Amino acid sequence: MSLLKELDEAKREIIKDGFDMSVGELIRIYEREEMVINPVYQRLYRWDESQKTRFIESLLLGIPIPPIFVFTSEDGRWEVIDGLQRLSTIFEFAGVLKDGDGKIKDFFIPSGTKALPSLDGLKWDAVNPDEKLPLSVRLDFERSRIRVEILKKESDEKTKFDLFERLNTGGSSLTPQEVRNCIMIMINPAFFNKIEELSKYPAFVNINLQTEKAKLEQKPIELVLRFLAYRYKQYDRSVDINEWLSSVVYDMSKDEQYDIDSEAEIFKRTLSVLEKSAGQDSFKKYDGTSFSRNFLISSFEVITHGIATNIDIYEGHNTKYIVDKIKGLWQMDDFIKYAKAGVTASTRLINTLPNAARWFS
User: Fold this and answer.
1) Is the model more confident about 114 or about 329?
2) What share of the chain is helix, strand, coil (3-state, %, to 5)?
3) Whole-number Cα distances in Å, 24 to 20, 102, 140, 145, 203
4) In terms of domains, do 125 and 199 share one?
5) Which end of the chain is more exposed for a tag (fewer CB within 10 A), N or C?
6) What does the mean pLDDT of the chain come to?
């Protein structure tokens, strides 16, 4: 097939339409609940004050804004695929943004403005005239226009998934896991809820020594997904780990035969065994004398995969046996060689995961 034909077919799959809309129209659509911003998505809404302020300034100055992408749901409402942070900032500035419980959030008040210093401290609506955004400025803001690209409901779910992933990776403010979270919510909300529940399992929380930054970027959920994905499908060395993981997450979310409850139980049993034995040392490096203080993804992958595969055996062993097995892992040249810094994720995975079950047999 020629490149031109491939392009033609690929473009046909993305059935979309688009037009410019005023900010005021978008606000009214949101107020009428004809636009859906999934409450879970709002957990990813983490622009800081300066980012919000710069965006509001840009709209007032007439600086071109990237388009918003929405998907037309079965009931005709728009579901935001890309543009969450921009739309949420607009709605919060106008005092209409709702939180996860459906309550209206406080107005966003710009601060630290650069191009429009007089905008500092002004509120969309206020009793004190000196604190209130002038009507003329508010009208200009509402008349600002943003391009809205609409993915129609005729487009299949896979197209919706692919579009979302492409729009939110590569230079995006969302991390790969945050993108995967949104994808799971789109495809199978119940599946996402189960994964999120596992990320809060006490034994996992107690020994998963992640930094606050890692937690903010949804790393605990990523670790749960890695555990499940490695058991669901063998890693394909030909693709990047993030690309592979996103693909497997899509497959698991759509697989009606996938027994998430059974796999969740194995996850809990595995982490409970580790909490009772090695505890917070479970995923640290062992230097022959003591465990270091840092969490290592290479340890997590191999240890959890190996123990999960042999979970019936490990639940019957004493603490010393399990700790000795973990220490022994760090004496194996085949593991150390690929667990060290500088080794790519793909190289590490194809050389360690296939051996995990045997190393912990």
Assistant:
1) 329
2) 55, 10, 35
3) 12, 21, 10, 9, 48
4) no
5) N
6) 85
